[in-house]
Amino acid sequence: MADVAETRKFIEIEVLRYRPEQDSEPFLQIFEVPFTDDMSVLQGLQYIKDYLDGSLSFRWSCRMAICGSCGMMIDGKPRLSCKTFLRDFHPGRVRVEALAHFPIERDLVIVMDDFIDKLESIKPYIIAKEPRTLEQGEYLQTPAERDVYEQFSSCINCLLCYAACPQYGLNPEFVGPGIMALLHRYNVDSRDGGAAQRMDVVNAEEGVFNCTAVGYCSEVCPKHVDPANAVNQNKTLSAKDYFLRFVTPKGGAR
Amino acid sequence: MKPAGKRSNAPIFWSLFGAGGMLAALIGPMLVFITGIAVPLGLVLPADAMSYPRMLAFAQHWIGKGFLFAVVALFLWHAGHRIYHSLHDIGIHAGMGARLACYGLAMLGTVLAAWWLLAIGF
Fold it and tell me: Which part of the chain is the 4Fe-4S ferredoxin-type domain (chain A) (predicted)?
């Protein structure tokens, strides 16, 4: 029988480091990590933290592509590190960097304040069209009404689409793909009546027209949301509202 | 939480861009084929299909005028908008200069097209 040590595979993980208290700028550090075929890039990073360098910082939580915490640039592409496997890069080296287009807090941890601010600005909750009392019962919805927004509700706020969006990279004022998908999710919900308030975000100079229809946002989304589609639909809605706002009653943005 | 900013006037340019893109996609290749290949090489169409008297008559009819105006103006607005955004993409950030150059040229072309089409008479 073959010696276990001999069959053990190693991969080089090149990690972008930045510790603001001691580094003047980010730099790449290479770690040699033993791995098995079922190990994700996240598990590789956890190995580094546990056995090679405890100071390495990165965000993670669920390990199953649902929490949206572990987005990173892996070999230059925005991906969830829990959903990306080391075996796919072996025998080459895999480079892991902080998500593009965001300031780095520390190592692979980015500052996401900009996203949170924008998220709050779109009121990401249902603003009841016709408020109901408890006695009136729940807000009912048909399957067809649910289908209109369902895919957009799968967003897990992982920010991969922001790291993919060249327009967000050029101008971080741009509201961006993920927020547009979430905004659309509520605006087209049959129970919601808040579209007119949210359309101010769509219509603004920082709004939907900064998009140049690249479509990479939808390609990198780990939850098969199509933010580019939400953006496109809202370009049409915003243009319609722009030209028809004087002839339609208030709230014509819908 | 920050309030939504000033309303963008992009819908004006985006609509012209969209209309021009749609028109270009629908008839652009056909126009290239007719004006650039078929007529010069004498293929498919009669040799005098684009002769001066025919084209003049075309441009003097109100339908012909409308077609020529739409093609010239909307193609220009489409191109202007595309170039404006492409300049931004390659790092030339859209100031007033880029805006004037791109949309200004489209506007100039639109005005000239209208002027000439009207000057030809009916």
Answer: 145-175
Of B1, B2, B11, the CB nearest to A238: B11
Instruction: With CB atoms and an 8 Å threshold, state whether A170 touches B89.
Output: yes
Whether A59 and A27 map to the same domain: the answer is yes
Contacts of B3 in chain A (CB under 8 A): 121
**pLDDT tens-digit map of A13-47:** 999 999 999 999 999 999 999 999 999 999 999 99
Contacts of A204 in chain B (CB under 8 A): 4-8
Of B14, B88, B89, the CB nearest to A239: B14
Q: 3.40.50.720, 2.160.10.10, 1.20.1300.10, 3.40.630.30: which CATH number matches B12-37+52-119?
A: 1.20.1300.10
Q: Are residues A16 and A99 in the same domain?
A: yes
CA distance A180 to A161: 11
With b for 16 or more beta-carbon neighbours within 10 A and e for fewer, the A145-162 pattern comes to eeeebebbeebbbbbbbb
